[in-house]
Design brief:
elongated, mainly alpha, Four Helix Bundle (Hemerythrin (Met), subunit A)
Length: about 190
């Protein structure tokens, strides 16, 4: 509950936005859990669709996404320390790693397509296309949030004493990273 000194508008808005971010993350998590449950139920119908090359691409992509999370954490630390140039640098690094992850996903799709593995080829490959497309769509939204953080930092409008935008972006970004690691492990161990 906000005290009269805090003001109702300012103190009450922060928890609501964070709560909304956590609810969105919970919905996203349930979506991906439902997809993987369906995948595991159908697993074994057709195997042999994932190549060693695809596994390498997915491993590199996972490293890129984890590096992006670390860069975003570092950017948040610099924001708290009021070092805005370092905040901008680390946040831009996180954004760049996120874009590189999406490029890696495109490489993974190209690898499957060049091996003549399509959505209709195997139930497992259909799952791969579906889950990576859904994750990429969610990641594009998170990149939009990250771009907003970057634009505010670039213009000097990201305030260290009000890091709500950075915190909400971090919640979404890190949860997408955790979701990807989970999906990567499912794909790797149940291929």
């Amino acid at each position: 509950m906000a005290t009269p000194a805090q003001g109702w508008g300012e103190g009450a808005a922060f928890p609501k936005l964070k709560r909304a971010a956590w609810l969105a993350v919970a919905a996203m998590t349930m979506f991906f859990l439902a997809l993987t449950f369906a995948y595991l139920q159908r697993h074994g119908l057709n195997t042999g669709w994932m190549s060693a090359r695809l596994a390498e691409i997915l491993s590199a992509d996972t490293c890129l996404l984890l590096a992006s999370s670390l860069a975003l954490v570092r950017g948040r630390e610099f924001l708290k320390a009021r070092r805005m140039r370092a905040t901008l640098c680390w946040t831009a690094t996180a954004f760049g790693f996120g874009l590189a992850f999406l490029a890696g996903q495109a490489m993974a799709w190209r690898s499957l397509l060049s091996a003549n593995v399509y959505v209709a080829t195997h139930p497992n490959s259909a799952f791969f296309y579906l889950v990576t497309a859904a994750h990429a769509a969610h990641l594009l939204l998170a990149l939009g949030l990250l771009a907003w953080v970057l634009s505010r930092a670039w213009r000097g409008r990201l305030q260290p004493d009000r890091p709500l935008l950075m915190e909400v972006t971090g919640i979404v970004w890190h949860c997408l990273d955790i979701t990807w690691v989970y999906l990567y492990l499912v794909l790797l161990f149940y291929r």
